[in-house]
Amino acid sequence: MTVLTAVRLVDGVVLSGDEVAVALVAVATLVLVPVLLVLALLHDRRRLHRTPEPDVVPHSTPTWDDLTGLPGRVETQAHVGAAHARARQALGRMAVVVVDVQRLHEVNGRHGRTGGDLLLRSAADRLVAVAGSRAFVARTGGDQFTVVLEEPVTDADLLGLARDLGTAVTGPHGEELRFWVGASVWSPGEPADGEQLLADAELALAQARCARRPGEAPSSAFYEAPLRDRVERRERLRRDLLSAVDDGDIVAVFQPVSDTTTLDVVGLEALARWHRSGLLLEPAQWWDLADEDLVARIGLLVLRAARAVTERSGLPVAVNVASTHLEQPDFVAAVEEAWGEGLWDRLTLEITESDALADVVAAERALSRLVARGVRVAIDDFGTGYNSLARLGSLPLHVLKVDRSFVQRVVTTEGAAVVQAIVSLARAHRLDVVAEGVEEPEQLAALSAMGVPTVQGFLLGRPSRTVPRRAHAAPPLGGRARTAPGHPARDPVLSPAASA
Q1: CA R_g for the chain
Q2: The pTM is what?
Q3: Which residues touch 153 (CB under 8 Å, ≥6 apart)?
Q4: Angstrom distance (rounded) from CA 203 to CA 298
Q5: Deepest in the core among 1, 14, 226, 439, taking most CB within 10 A?
Q6: Residues annotated as region Disordered (predicted)?
Q7: What is the pLDDT of residues 38-53, one digit of tens each?
């Protein structure tokens, strides 16, 4: 082996082999170490701003969110802990506000993942703008964000924040951008730590979502000591309801719709009941436990039962539609699968007039596709909402249902005038009329005198699992449909309805 022993440099300077080695190490150190340091810093920076893939780091939590540019859950937990320590030291207040973005699932279904990402970025911008420069804002879940407010924090500040976040603004695709809001507040002397504050705010958020009935705008809730027990009780009931759907304990009952003159049964309305502890519970006792997915499942269950009954009885049947289900991208396909082939002219879908439609265009498109098959559409509780007349022009309608609150007063001069006005409006639009909630013979007589063709209510028949016997063939339908789907006022299905 040949070993380098000396190197001649300029001016006759000669370095030994050992001296050459030392010189090379020095040069390498001066050149390579800075390069390696720069590469390490770039790697750390990328690691800080990258969300780990779940299949690569299965149990890690991102510290920063690439999509929104906001801190993640780990950063949030650390910030809440530090803010709590500062509040304890300064004897000041602090608040944790946890929010969920409404309708992210629908936007993902309608516009794809890219559309959902745009909504989340808009939500992040909205939160930062509303919370203010002093607030800490983070993304802590798929559609969940967390806001931390430090002293000074007043109740007015929190109520104003909740109000602003509950106010709809236009999202990137024209949809309403709203938030559900849950908040917890720490004041000096309280035992809760930062971790408990986060848990309490998430509990309040769960209460806000539970308290909202399907179709209503998102709401807000603030943590209080008894809240945990209430939420836990509701959660047990919700699990029981979910099991009831899985086990077949949500059943359909049917209320007759009758001809006003002959009292013959000319149609049915399918209503949902929870068979629990030997009782049939009306939706008013459990409907607000159902989230949007469960609402859809129950509605389709009732629709399948309605199909079976119309096949046996030959009577047309009405099923109520929850707005949250109607606006889902797969609504038409789900209805087609549940109803099956043919007999579309025996089905009426009812939309509760007071049930808010966030996307009227999508609802009109879905209903029009079904109307093209022969399905009829009814507006339930007509006159009780803020946009009754607007819906006459925006949706493909066949039937107006007079709300029970008007029927109860139809024997008075003022009440008769209201009902007569609704009947005249329906005739002008070539729509059929159904009066619901008829309980007294005098009401039936007054409605008959006004020319209301079909009615339903306890006077004519209560909801029952036994289908009323068909008295004669349903009236022939021409132009706008002449059937009488019936839906009582205080019951949200393909939302369930209560007795009329």
Answers
A1: 32
A2: 0.57
A3: 92, 93, 94, 95, 185
A4: 26
A5: 439
A6: 468-500
A7: 444 444 433 333 333 3
